[in-house]
Amino acid sequence: MDLAFVVLIQVLYAVASLVIVSAGLAVIFGMMKVINLAHGEFMMLGAYAVIAALKLGINLWIAIFVVAPIAVGVVGVVLERLVIRRLYGRMVDTMLATWGLSLLLVGIVTSVAGNTTAGVSAPLGSFSVGAYSVSGYTLVIIAVAVALALAIRFVLTRTQLGLIARGTMQKPDMANALGISPSRVYSVTFAVGAALSGLAGGLLAPLTGVVPTMGAAFVAKAFITVIGGGPAILAGLLGASGLFGAINQLATFATTPVLGEVALLVAAIVMLRLLPQGITGRFFKGSL
Amino acid sequence: MNRFAKSWASAAVSLAVGIALLFGLPGVMDDYTLIEVTIYAVMSILGVSLAFIWGFGGILCFGQAAFFGLGSYTYAIAVMNMGDSTVPFLLAIVVPALFAALLGYVIFYGRLSDVYMGVITLTVTLILFNLVNSTAGPEWRIGSAPLGGFNGIPAIPTLNWPGQQDEVLTPKDLFYVTFTCLLLVYLGLRVLIASKIGRVIVAAKENEQRVLLLGYDARVYKLFSFTLGGAIAGLAGCLFANWGAFTSPTIFGLAQSAQIIIWVIVGGLGTLVGPIVGCVAIQWLTSQIGTQQAFNANLVLGAILVVFVLLVPRGIVPTLGDLIDMAWRRWRKAPAHAPKVAMPAAAPTEPPRALAATETAP
């Protein structure tokens, strides 16, 4: 019974971390159809922002929930203005340019911070369930994932901002005619996506070593999740995270973490063969 | 000259230069430099493999390093088990080709778009990297070959003459073999592209719908070019394992994949020579960067990639070709006394943009 509970927590945790890791990418890809290959590096910047903030004596929770998203959001705005804005509508070029940006960011951070692993210790300690112990931070990750999903839904459906953003993405010319500046909307959307990536990096900083190349470890999972999810941002994100996270975690239990990742990938490729448009391309059509 | 004639002229020049280098370089270079040139040739083969499937097949593969690494590991594992290198050499081409065929089947028959294709191939590379990277323990071995995990496989037996296991190739022999492979791959692809199959491949890149309406199954042609690209990358991987008698998971890595893309972008998408030029230039640059501390190699590579995508999207070789073309026309058409206004007449020579990317705009 205890084991079942622990396994459940671990599966929920795997799903939640996929949601967190992919949310920023899902917003940028889902809304703007921009494949941001620098996503992993945005997360890396978020993690470094947390470390820098801790060095300045800022509280860990403020560093994670405030400093990291804002810092990376600002970086996102700058990069959008300088590079990405010139490439809208050219998906492949955007992919290449953002990949260049990801290498550039890795290079800059390596030059500044060195190629060493920095670490943040996980807060909150752990509690025990029967003979097993569960880290309290695991529960924070799960809670944040739920909050994030609710927040995305709320912003997109219930606020003026979400309405304007969705309208602009569907018909930029029409939005422009109604007096909305599409370029500003793109800019803000990209910044929000970047900030979410930064938040993800900050949240994961206590769980993984922080190195300039850490982005590569997450980028594959994030992409597979977003692509597997399909066109609907939120439903796709949750559906694909649920499916892949569970498969990953269960395969990890049965074998090793690396084979868990392989299982995730194989599941994703098989699924894309069956549902080329992703989960929400066939089911939950028209949802968010 | 029309474009077709020009393309054969350029091919002939490239081949002539290649053959001259093949026979000339060992005469003028010491063994150490020759070994350096050999790795450039190995990487050029890899670059050409992507240049073919991307520039001519329109298949954006972000994970060409996967086939490179597979070829390298296949050769290493097979040769350690078999001793003689002939069959492992062939296996290093066949195994990546089969893997490419399997992956390509899922992608093309699932009708996934360019962008998904890029993401999936990238993911496959990363997963292979993780997989191989985690095989460090002594329990991970295939036959008598330990996989070595992140340490890689050292002391790989290098190529020997077919059937004569003791006649191992010298570094100079390996240079000849590698360079000949490069020339053969170049020539083979050139002929293939000019053939009917090649024209369908290029046509499918330009407009898949139209090719379907003409009665060709574009998926088959795409699968074929993807598989061929995988085979060539596998060949490069095998030669790479021979070059250093060593292979490690980093050749599956993201950095390796990124480099191949950068060679093609810098050299010129839609040409076969361009990526060779790009490869040599970038490899040389990276080794120069490696000798100093001020700049990180990633920083420079990233900056180059961004700058080329934004400012020189056609790459070095086509841009240079245009300049030469323009100069040639000016020299021929405009005698010394002609006013400069005559110049714009050369403008319509602008060939179709090589980067198919622009056509995917919604």
Report on the structure:
The complex is a heterodimer of chains A (288) and B (362). With 288 residues, chain A is mainly alpha-helical. Chain A has a single domain, classed as ABC transporter involved in vitamin B12 uptake, BtuC (Orthogonal Bundle), CATH 1.10.3470. In chain A, 75% of the residues lie in helices and 3% in strands. Chain A is built from 12 helices and 2 strands; from the N terminus they run ααααββαααααααα. Chain A has helices spanning 2-32, 39-55, 60-82, 91-113, 136-158, 160-170, 172-177, 182-204, 215-229, 233-254, 257-274, 279-282, and strands at 126-129, 132-135. In chain A, a hairpin with a 2-residue loop joins β1 (126-129) and β2 (132-135). In chain A, α10 (233-254) packs across α11. Chain B has a domain at 8-251. In chain B, 69% of the residues lie in helices and 1% in strands. A two-stranded antiparallel sheet of chain B has the order 1-2. In chain B, α2 (31-56) crosses α11, α7 crosses α9 and α10 (254-267) packs parallel to α12 (297-311). Chains A and B meet through α4, α9 and α11 of A and α4, α5, α10 and α12 of B.
Give the beta-strand count of chain A: 2
Q: Please give the oligomerization state of what you see.
A: heterodimer
Distance between the termini of chain A: 37 Å
Tally of DSSP β-strands of chain B: 2
The number of domains of chain A is 1
Supply Rg of chain B.
Answer: 21 Å
Can you write the helix and strand succession of chain A as a string? HHHHEEHHHHHHHH
Q: What structural class do the secondary elements of chain A suggest?
A: mainly alpha
Uncertain residue ranges of chain A:
none
Number of helices of chain B: 13
Share of residues in helices of chain A: over 70%
State the shape of chain B: globular
Report the portion of residues of chain B in β strands: under 5%
How do the helices and strands follow one another from N- to C-terminus of chain B? HHHHHEEHHHHHHHH
Q: Sheet bearing the most strands of chain A, described?
A: 2 strands, antiparallel
Can you give the mean pLDDT of chain B? 81
CATH C-level category of chain A: Mainly Alpha
Q: Can you tell me the CATH topology of chain A?
A: ABC transporter involved in vitamin B12 uptake, BtuC
Helix run count of chain A: 12
Major sheet description of chain B: 2 strands, antiparallel
